[in-house]
Write a structure and sequence with these properties.
- With 413 residues, the chain is an alpha/beta fold.
- It is built from 18 helices and seven strands.
- Helix 1 runs parallel beside helix 2, helix 11 packs antiparallel against helix 12 and helix 12 packs antiparallel against helix 16.
């Protein structure tokens, strides 16, 4: 018997055994692709005597299922009562010899990569080997009976569900990556290690109230609320953005002020010429884009990407930028979006632990900024009972700008 105390040692033993064995039996909770042991098993499918793989929490990669979909000796466990969670690798060698690895690692890239894992290597020469082999075989037999063969249609359904579940799984891991990519995504700190993510609502509201004013304009809580109230009324009075008058569109877009309402807060876009042109010409693509974002309720990544697709049609000469796109989003849905711009990017990126580059990419804005916002304690707090807090809560994502706005060298407008 041998104790294996790291992922590298476990992988070394498994790759050796895959190469040396006459047959293998495997029972694991999850499996993935893209690592040496997987490649070895894929290349020696004839050695698989029985393999049972769980799919709970949609952790098993659909490409792994596809690889072994038609293999007669591979089955999968779907929707078990409880969690199917074994990790056992039994290898039968020549001359009635056998070896088995039992421990913590699933058959995944992460298990044999950066995870902390531990396992025991047992052989037919150990004390009590005959009894242990019988128990192992009996357990695998039982797993085999509860497992099933998947059809191509079931695999397609699983793949769709797997894709939809990836954002939530990545968020838990602090990765927040693109769910369409097969990489580990944007690895950040664990959410519990990011102060902004674990900030309470009370602390968030306290910081919003304590924002430093930037004369000569009312860059205070009340000044910001005037902007939000005015924009909310504009959207409420018009079914579509294209029906808003010229002045109203400029106010929403952060291009002009009106009386005592300083619409340039939450991201002034006056310096962006092409955006000016698109707003003043009432480009219908901007209105169609905003139609993709529901006025209330949850917003999905797919809806956001539809918004971006139509938004970009307003700028056929090339991509325009996250600041202007996020300004419109923050005005329509200030509960979910913040205008990401040169005045707050340093603070936001530092607070969320992301690079400036990620925030300026359209998908990166959603995956690395909005994903983190929706995981934050303050964002998920219940609606406050105090009237002043309730109003800010309704615009809470946009109010991140008040926490990280950098007003130095700001023109007087």
């Amino acid at each position: 018997m041998k104790l294996l105390t790291c992922a590298a040692a476990i992988e070394a033993e498994l790759t050796r055994l895959i190469g040396e064995c006459r047959s293998c039996q495997v029972a694991v909770a999850w499996a993935s692709v893209g690592f040496e042991a997987f490649d070895l098993v894929r290349g020696q499918k004839n050695k698989i005597k029985r393999m049972v793989v769980g799919t709970h929490f949609y952790q098993t990669h659909p490409d792994f299922i596809e690889t072994f979909l038609t293999h007669p000796n591979v089955r999968f466990v779907l929707n078990p009562s409880g969690v199917f969670h074994p990790k056992a690798y039994l290898f039968e060698m020549a001359g009635s010899k056998w070896e088995c690895v039992v421990g913590s690692p699933n058959f995944t890239q992460a298990a044999f990569g950066g995870n902390d894992e531990m396992a025991v290597l047992m052989t037919n020469g150990d004390v009590g080997a005959a009894s242990a082999f019988g128990d192992l075989q009996q357990a695998i037999d039982q797993y085999w009976e509860k497992a099933t063969v998947l059809t191509p249609g079931e695999l397609a359904g699983y793949r769709d569900m797997w894709k939809r579940k990836q954002p939530a799984l990545r968020n838990v891991l602090g990765q927040y990556g693109n769910p369409q990519q097969e990489t580990e995504g944007d690895k950040g700190k664990s959410p519990v290690n990011v102060p902004l993510l674990r900030m309470s609502w009370d602390e968030f509201f306290k910081q919003v109230k304590s924002e430093i004013d930037h004369p000569p304009h009312d860059h205070s809580l009340e000044g910001r609320l005037k902007v939000m109230r005015a924009v909310k009324k504009i959207f409420a009075d018009h079914k579509e953005f294209q029906n808003v008058d010229d002045a109203g569109r400029e106010h929403i877009a952060g291009l002009a002020n009106s009386g005592d309402v300083f619409f340039l807060w939450f991201g002034s876009m006056r310096e962006v010429g092409k955006f000016w042109t698109a707003i003043q010409s009432n480009d219908k693509n901007l209105s169609v884009a905003l139609d993709q974002i529901p006025a209330t309720g949850a917003i999905t990544r797919e809806q956001y990407l539809e918004y971006i697709k139509h938004y970009l049609k307003a700028f056929p000469e090339g991509r325009h930028g996250v600041p202007t796109a996020s300004r419109l989003l923050a005005m329509k849905r200030p509960d979910t979006f913040v205008c990401f711009n040169k005045r707050n990017l340093e603070g936001l990126c530092t607070a969320f632990g992301i690079s400036h580059k990620i925030g300026y990419e359209y998908e990166g804005y959603w995956d690395s900024i909005i994903g983190r916002i929706k995981d934050s304690t303050w964002w998920n707090s219940p609606l406050p009972t105090d009237d002043s807090e309730r109003e800010v809560w309704q615009y809470r994502a946009a109010f991140l700008d008040s926490l990280y706005y950098d007003g130095k060298d700001m023109p007087s407008a």
